[in-house]
């Protein structure tokens, strides 16, 4: 292929927000490397599916290597994959901790580390990570300390990378979400979940895609935690 075509890496890309992000980046003309634990090959020759659990050592590097081998470059990484388990703090198990930190932290670290090295080789790039407004706006109705532990770290790393790489053409931003209407939330939970947002309704997948693509194109924005949360971070 013509290796001037921009290339985006998207984790957690098999369904929901991730699948919509693949479509969004294709609409921008990007080639896409789509990762999930299990993901089917695409009929689109500009979408490369790379299955693998990013919580496992070495998988992040393998995703970036596949992108470089297939498309020749990496311009953007969207750290969309994440695990969210809401339960009282003392009810979390060691297995919960390993699963959540594996994907939310190790996955971010390994994919982003390899992606940044690839971005530096052609003078710039873009890191966008999906976070949660629960970091800023804890809610007793949704106890989720491990989400805050991991995604709060992600927010801090987002700013750190923005500053570290500002002079090298690499931007780093995050999108902090409220509750988005995806299949993971059964319809019978929607009324309760909608009430957690000042605007009184859930977010849509398109709201997330719009925010990510805004950050993709916002060349003067870096180190930003963009809240797409129906006003949660502002108060309630």
Automatic annotation (TrEMBL):
Entry protein name: SDR family oxidoreductase
Gene Ontology terms for molecular function: oxidoreductase activity, acting on the CH-OH group of donors, NAD or NADP as acceptor
Annotated family: Belongs to the short-chain dehydrogenases/reductases (SDR) family.
Gene3D superfamilies the record matches: NAD(P)-binding Rossmann-like Domain
Organism placement in taxonomy: Bacteria, Bacillati, Actinomycetota, Actinomycetes, Mycobacteriales
Species, as recorded: Mycolicibacterium frederiksbergense
BP GO terms, sorted: fatty acid elongation
SUPFAM superfamilies with a match to the protein in the record: NAD(P)-binding Rossmann-fold domains
